[in-house]
């Protein structure tokens, strides 16, 4: 069941991307994990709910909306599947239980999903030396250009079946003026939130791409945050550049 919230004071209808209600990728090119070895599946009770990115052998980056059942209440029994393009693959994929969930202290979905970022600490380290496990590259500065891609798992909008294989779609960002016009009722923070569209009309987001990385080459530019139900409206991602210091702080606090 997908939760739909009428945000009356925003005057628009948005699909809330909490955990297993998050958005997934569809219509993309099927790829093997070696093309996106930093991508992981975030799961609850062995069900894929969101994507994430490996930022160290013990930490995964994702969206806060993926791991919060409600405000300040974290899902239990979260695990991460790494090292496979097939989320049913128990032979080659590595399962890691999550020991600690760190979400941004100022994240609130009622506050326009600003600060939609979280770090998952794993009980056991990902063996990066193994094939198809690789750290995502954090940006030194804001990425230039507007052509990006994202990879994840998705539900076919026609058959409603979950694709168990990793997919990649190309996306392009849009100017803040266009984003502002589409979300006129929302106070989007354009210093940390940016809008994007799939580059092909046959591709898009459907009901677990939340948390998936927005990539500029092999460098992460953002994290998919939320999407409108209207296909004519862009989706929104959280720009990670402004959170590099926060990430380092949070990892330092949970080093042991």
UniProtKB/TrEMBL annotation:
CDD domains according to UniProt: Tryp_SPc (cd00190)
Lineage top rank: taxon: Eukaryota
Domain Peptidase S1 positions: 25-252
GO molecular function: serine-type endopeptidase activity
InterPro entries per the UniProt record, alphabetical: Peptidase_S1, Peptidase_S1_PA, Peptidase_S1_PA_chymotrypsin, Peptidase_S1A, Trypsin_dom
Keywords for this protein: Disulfide bond, Hydrolase, Protease, Serine protease
GO biological process: proteolysis
Family membership: Belongs to the peptidase S1 family.
Protein known as: Peptidase S1 domain-containing protein
Organism: Aphidius gifuensis (Parasitoid wasp)
């Amino acid at each position: 069941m997908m939760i739909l919230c009428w945000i009356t004071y925003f005057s628009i209808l948005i699909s809330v991307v909490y955990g297993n209600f998050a958005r997934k990728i569809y219509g993309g090119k099927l790829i093997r994990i070696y093309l996106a070895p930093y991508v992981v599946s975030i799961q609850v009770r062995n069900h894929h709910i969101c994507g994430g990115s490996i930022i160290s052998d013990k930490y995964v980056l994702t969206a806060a909306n993926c791991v919060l059942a409600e405000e300040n209440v974290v899902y239990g029994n979260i695990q991460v599947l790494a090292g496979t393009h097939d989320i049913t693959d128990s032979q080659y994929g590595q399962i890691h239980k999550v020991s600690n969930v760190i979400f941004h202290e100022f994240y609130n979905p009622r506050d326009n999903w600003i600060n939609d970022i979280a770090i998952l600490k794993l009980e056991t380290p990902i063996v990066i030396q193994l094939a198809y496990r690789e750290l995502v590259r954090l940006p030194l500065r804001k990425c230039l250009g507007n052509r990006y891609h994202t990879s994840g798992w998705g539900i076919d909008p026609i058959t409603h079946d979950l694709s168990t294989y990793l997919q990649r779609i190309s996306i392009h960002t849009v100017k803040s003026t266009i984003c502002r016009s589409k979300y006129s009722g929302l106070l989007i923070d354009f210093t940390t939130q940016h809008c994007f569209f799939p580059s092909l009309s046959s591709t898009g987001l459907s009901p677990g791409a939340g948390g998936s990385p927005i990539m500029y080459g092999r460098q992460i530019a953002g994290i998919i945050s939320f999407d409108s139900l209207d296909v004519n409206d862009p989706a929104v991602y959280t720009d990670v550049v402004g959170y590099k210091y926060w990430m380092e702080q949070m990892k330092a606090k949970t080093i042991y």
